[in-house]
Structure prediction request, 514 residues.
Amino acid sequence: MEHPTLPVERTTRRRIAGFLLGGGLFASLASFVYPVLRYLIPPPVADLGGDAVVASKVSDLKPNSSKIFRFGTRPALLLMTAEGEYRAISAVCTHLSCTVQYRNDLHQIWCACHNGLYDLNGRNISGPPPRPLEVFQVHVQGDEIVVTRKREA
Amino acid sequence: MGSLTHLRDWLDERFHWADLLGPLKKKAVPIHNLSHWYFLGGITLFLFMIQVCTGILLLLYYRPGANEAFESVQYIMTRVQFGWLIRSIHSWAANLMILTAFAHMFSVIFLRAYRKPRELTWVSGMLLLFLAMGFGFSGYLLPWNTLAFFATKVGTEITGQVPLIGHGLMVFLRGGEDVTGATITRFFGFHVAVLPGLATLLILIHLALVQYFGMSVPSSVEERWKAAPKEAREMKFFPNFILRELMAWYIALAVLGALAAIRPWELGAKADPFAPAPAGIRPEWYFMFMFQTLKKIPAKVWFLDGEVIGILIFGLAGFVWLLLPFFDQASPGRGRRFVTGAGIFALGYMLAMTIYGYMAK
Prediction:
């Protein structure tokens, strides 16, 4: 079989055809993959009422006790210290996001997952938690205890 | 390139790759004036693969249940990025798949590709078509909109008319006496687990049979080639036919994408089991010929209910249809005319009744 070398004109023509074919296939492939990748990303969940929440009634909480309430999409902890002071703190442990609880025997906040301890100002004092818990503001309005996110100054 | 050859050699040493691919390389596709009908089965397979992919994507957000199904589809259509596109492609590809499957079936009838030794290929293909219709029927309910609710109510009610086992079958399908959230759960299970499993198995059998027997040559072409063997032509399956098939798939994809983008599938209103059926309730188009027939049969024929007669006739016709290749062989000439006649009658009847169904108010 003889293989005559193609004239330059024919080889460039073939290269253009190859480029168009390859480019077209690549473009259509990209147009299939792009919508699928976007589809896989879940739409953001609306953060309903994340700024101010009625956490409890004044009558529901006794000194040295606590209550978990919903703050936006996450749980938060409302507690009354033995001295009768209100504290509202995020209940999501900064270690691996377990939900923490108030230990009225220790007067501290405890995470059961990995034995992390926080004081009543949310500071991590023992165990694996790397950062303090977020602290919220508490206002008493009539019979209701309202919790708000602290505004960044 | 070097590592690719290395990998191939590695695999070849262990699995004798060359032996496995041997039959594929030897396989040839006859070339004649009717060759383009060979593409339909492949296009149907391609659309099925699209269904598997888009179906898995829909599963990421869909939730079965009377209080969640409609809302989750609405969420897919309005909130999820490109969700409308994925759902539209799923719905359009489902309909196109039924269409190409029917076209494939009639081409096999009229080109007599079902004849000996390919009877079981036909039977496996027919079972796949029944499965495809089952996919359509079960998938139709999942968005839980008004049309779907009443179509399912009527469809399962018809099943309930089957003598002796009908009522039990209906309760089994509905998951109770009525179409409720329990029906969604069942249909969801059929649609995403039972039917895909069965269909995959049957497709593998169907393809294995097609590979085993090779492509059928239509009898008219076969006679011509027998008279003049020099005229017989064929092309290699790999890569010549495969590349042509891929082009056909690419065109199918373009049609599908255009339909889904230009005419996105509608969602309609949420089903309300206590609201009256709205006017214009009808099943999907591929059930229309049966639906219209059942509407036209008188309520009482002799001592039997009209529906029962309809179901018995369609059941019998479906059974005869499944065994059609065996009638062809029963007697030479007569059997062949019977099958072709049955094909023409069925096609004409289905077309006429479908058009009638859409024209009739």
Summary: The mean pLDDT of chain A is 88. The two ends of chain A are 84 Å apart (CA to CA).
